[in-house]
Amino acid sequence: MSLYVYYKSFKNMLKHPFKMSRFLSEMKRYNKANTNPEFKASMKNLYLCLNDWDDAAGTLGVYFYQDLWAARKIFQRKPTEHFDIGSRIDGFVAHVLSFVPVTMIDIRPLSRRVENLNFVQADATNLENIPDGSITSLSSLCAPEHFGLGRYGDPIDPEACFKAMRSMQRVLTRGGYLYIAVPIGDENVVAFNAHRIFKPELIAETLNELKLSDFSVISDIRKCHGYFEHIDFKKFHEMNLGTDNSGCVVGLFEFVKE
Q: What is the pLDDT of residue 12?
């Protein structure tokens, strides 16, 4: 066992003495019941996990609902190929890749290759190598709010997020669908260099050549926690969630190019 694991385990012992007592008791019971000497619990291979006893089975948070929302829509429409810009590869992209080939565009490199995943390292603010009206299914989930802030090694550009959205609008074909998720609030805010928060109206104004076909909201703010499907901007503002960094409120926008 590494020195780091020893150090981490020792810190856990000091921080959680009552949980440590339970841990030692259960370790003793395990060894008493165990009949396989190869799997005897010993201090040599100690790896304390003292905070999982009272946890829930999982967290149905913002990313869970966001990825489910978009993946379901894409699955229902069954495009022959899907394009994505900057979404989580170990979340949403993996979901979609299970039923349709994906071309993923990101400014950062990807070292490994995966079957049916076509990776393009490029700047999403211009999408210069993608022809107009050539994509039928496109997404960018919790990515545009970061563009141009330098957080991921991209050039500083206050207009980068809007350039990217207009580029997405340009490359979408007639009848094509665009799925965007960004933090939203009652005001436009930049929390440099992490992200921006947008008034939902600004997203619709930027993508003015597209029709908004669905707007839903996910909130993990304590006073109004939940997943609110198929609402409008007025209803969102009536929820009075505010605009700050005390919690996450994400707007889910589905657009179609008529």
A: 62
- Give CA–CA dist 249/53, Å, rounded: 29
- Look up the pTM and report it: 0.86
Residue 105 in this model has a pLDDT that exceeds 90: yes
**Strand 249-256, strand 211-219: pairing:** antiparallel
Higher pLDDT, residue 162 or 239: 162
- Beta-bridged to residue 190, according to DSSP, are 196
Residue 189 has pLDDT above 60, yes or no: yes
Residues 6 or more apart in contact with residue 129 via CB below 8 angstroms: 120, 122
Least confident of 58-67, 82-91, 144-153: 58-67
pLDDT given at position 207: 98
Domain ranges of the chain: 3-45, 62-256
Length, in residues, of the chain: 258
- The CATH architecture assigned to 62-256 reads 3-Layer(aba) Sandwich (3.40)
Whether the CB-CB separation of 41 and 34 falls below 8 Å is answered with: yes
